[in-house]
Specification:
The complex is a heterodimer of chains A (371) and B (277). Chain A has 13 helices and 17 strands. Chain A is of the alpha/beta class and 371 residues long. Chain A folds into 2 domains: 243 residues, Thiamin diphosphate (ThDP)-binding fold, Pyr/PP domains (Rossmann fold, 3-Layer(aba) Sandwich); 119 residues, Rossmann fold (3-Layer(aba) Sandwich), CATH 3.40.50. Classes of the chains: A alpha/beta (371), B alpha/beta (277). Bound molecules: thiamine diphosphate (TPP), iron/sulfur cluster (SF4) and magnesium ion.
């Protein structure tokens, strides 16, 4: 069914199709409409789930962990201050290997207060052990949310999954979206089965301490699961393509990079205008390309470097700054000459801005540049 | 048949842990699990009981149990209860949080769970300080008690009245208890287990290490706290308060305090003052 809906609506539609049994969430702009839709679904009987009205994000994630421990599928959503308020729980949920799916509406962090989109919230939590993916449009947000359950819950992975949508630019922009049928969704998404749950026949102790003798072993296993997730992402995308006819490209989405001399690395929905500028530049004889990162974790370092290596110069454009250093995407990529910081607190990134980045790259500029 | 200490389940659900000799908190956990049985899911935040009970691979609970983040006891319990209900599992979800984990950092999540009327049994084992981190003052450290963060004068504030707070939030049942009066404690747990909604039991649980008492004095001190009227045994049920017993020897209050090293900062005047706070 085709519908004209927002990015947030698309996430809510995907969650309804995935049918989590427990939803716990706390409101924060610009995430609110996701959890409002879900509350409507639950109250109207369109989604058979427990909706827990928690008193904070800390409790939203805690309740999601508890429900996951009880062996059921869960969902929560947050943004910005809320993500940081639950920060203590993020490595906890990941270390406990609870395959929770969470939507994060990318939003600036106070101070100064600002409700608009940048990516400092989720990028500050890159090391907490979650899979982190970034959607570009509402259709991808829906598809990514469905796939998030497939990937997170897969027994080779068992790691929580954060689906990121640019605040307002994506969460509140309306687009035509293909909403799959329940039958298709059920065909795609297996039932959630796990051993990592409360079991009265074989009781277990969870969330324990592990001293120096054992600690690294748990983290290493977690890290390896994260690496294995690359394979599971590919499987999920293949199966998704077979059932829904839409094919995604794993960790990266490379546009005209094959013969590009200048490549712009991007994250999230700014990528669309970057591709438009690339097309325009190509007409003018400049061999430009765009490399959109879809997954920040697991991180496709080798593939990124292989794509950037033949180019003359590349830049990372990101809505983030790690104060005193550079943008976090840039430092992760490691192989780009220039880091462009833009879009902070929802600032516009225009086609002219993007064009100017390519011009500066051609001129041989490098280092951290503020739009 | 009603449970009593005489007919408690002989199985052990919490053993082989590393609590100090004479630990009142570990007794509170052990006894409660004997009342609630194998289908209890024990939820413990950071604190002494989780620190002594879950050292991989030496895991001390024989029922399903987990450590939660310090502030998250009640909210994790809520999620577990909802998930188990979805699975059609009948179980008791029981929390064991310290005084700090309950009255301070976990108070918000606790209030949320009470507000939702979640079907949980929350037990606060109160040793009147942050013991696991080395005896620092909590919101339930009593007036005059020395801790490592009230090292000279002792706490200048009185304990928060957690029972009143919990009742005001709308709990189904709230009761205070003492590890010195186990029959009363197990009766209250059994009562809580039979009720729907949010149940709260606050059990005073002396800590020899933090209180400056001998390891064989735990039970005696826990009884005495009730007898001298420092710790009142109360119940809140159907919107009504019930006082379980009157202090049997209020005249021994000062003697009770001076037996405990932690009250050594109190001079004669201050000791008199404790009668009023
Ligand atoms: C967010 C957070 N802050 C601080 C701590 C450190 N911490 C762990 S246990 C504890 C004290 C617990 O005190 P209480 O709840 O009274 O339990 P007790 O140790 O006395 O049994 C503290 C402060 C922590 N684990 N998490
Ligand atoms: S310090 Fe106190 S509360 Fe902690 S284990 Fe020892 S006796 Fe028990
Ligand atoms: Mg304590």
């Amino acid at each position: 069914m085709r519908s004209f809906i927002s990015g947030n609506d698309a996430v809510a539609a995907a969650v309804r199709l995935a049918a989590p049994e427990v939803i716990s969430a706390y409101p924060i702009t610009p995430q609110t409409t996701v959890i409002e839709r879900l509350a409507e679904y639950v109250e109207s009987g369109g989604l058979d789930a427990e909706y827990i009205h928690v008193e904070s994000e800390h409790s939203a994630m805690s309740a999601a962990m508890g429900a996951s421990l009880a062996g059921v599928r869960t969902f929560t959503a947050t943004s910005s201050q809320g993500l940081l308020y639950m920060a203590e729980l993020l490595p906890y949920a990941a270390g406990g290997r609870f395959p929770i799916v969470m939507m994060n509406a990318n939003r600036s962090l106070a101070l100064p207060w600002n409700i608009y989109g940048d990516q400092r919230d989720s990028l500050s939590q890159l090391d907490c052990g979650w899979i982190q993916a970034y959607a570009e449009n509402a259709q991808e947000a829906l598809d990514m949310t469905l796939m998030a359950y497939y990937i997170a819950e897969n027994e080779r992975v068992r790691v929580p999954f954060m689906v990121n949508l640019d605040g307002f630019h994506l969460t509140h922009t309306y687009e035509v979206v293909e909403i799959p049928s329940q039958k298709q969704a059920d065909e795609f998404l297996p039932r959630f089965e796990t051993e990592n749950k409360i079991d009265f026949d074989r009781p277990k102790n969870f969330g324990f301490s592990a001293g120096p003798d054992w600690n690294a072993q748990f983290h290493r296993e977690h890290h390896e699961a994260m690496l294995r997730s690359t394979q599971v992402i590919a499987e999920a995308e293949d199966k998704f393509a077979r059932i829904f006819g839409r094919k995604y490209s794993g960790a990266l989405d490379a546009y005209r990079c094959d013969d590009a001399e200048y490549i712009l690395v991007t994250l999230g929905c700014v990528s669309g205008i970057c591709r438009q500028v690339t097309d325009a530049l190509r007409e003018e004889g400049v061999r430009a390309g765009v490399l959109r990162i879809r997954y920040m974790r697991p991180f496709a370092l080798d593939e990124i470097r292989a794509i950037l290596a033949p180019a003359r110069a590349s830049a990372v454009l990101e809505k983030d700054i790690s104060f005193g250093n550079a943008g976090t995407v840039f430092t992760n990529v490691g192989a780009a000459a220039m880091n462009v910081i833009g879009g902070l607190g929802g600032a516009d990134i225009s086609r002219e801005h993007v064009r100017s980045i390519f011009v500066r790259l051609k001129n041989g500029e490098n280092g951290v540049i503020w739009l | 048949m009603a449970v009593s200490v005489k007919n408690l389940d002989s199985r052990e659900f919490f053993f082989g842990h590393k609590a100090c000799a004479g630990c009142g908190g570990s007794l509170a956990v052990r006894i409660a699990l004997k009342v609630l049985g194998a289908r209890a899911v024990a939820v413990l935040p950071a604190g002494c009981m989780s620190a002594v009970g879950f050292n991989f691979p030496q895991l001390a609970f024989s029922n399903n149990a987990l450590i939660t983040p310090f502030a998250a006891t009640a909210s994790v319990m809520t999620g577990i209860e909802a998930g188990l209900r979805r699975r059609g599992e009948i179980a008791h979800v029981v929390g064991f949080a310290g005084d700090g984990g309950t009255a301070d950092i976990g108070l918000q999540a606790l209030s949320g769970a009470i507000d939702r009327g979640d079907n949980l049994i929350y037990i606060c084992y109160d040793n009147e300080a942050y013991m696991n981190t080395g005896i620092q003052k909590s919101g339930l450290t009593p007036f005059g008690a020395r801790t490592t963060t009230t090292p000279i004068t002792g706490s200048v504030r009185r304990k928060k009245d957690m029972l009143a707070i919990v009742a005001a939030n709308g709990a189904e049942y709230a009761a205070s208890a003492s590890v010195g009066y186990l029959d009363d404690y197990v009766t209250k747990i059994e009562k809580a287990a039979a009720k729907p909604g949010f149940k709260y039991i606050h059990v005073i649980a002396p800590c020899p290490t933090g209180w400056g008492i001998k390891t064989n004095e735990t039970i005696e001190i826990a009884r005495e706290a009730v007898d001298v009227g420092l710790w009142r045994l109360r119940e809140y049920e159907n919107g009504q308060w019930l006082e379980n017993c009157a202090p049997s020897r209020p005249e021994d209050l000062v003697k009770h305090l001076t037996r405990q090293g932690r009250f050594s900062a109190l001079d004669t005047d201050k000791l008199e003052e404790t009668k009023n706070v």
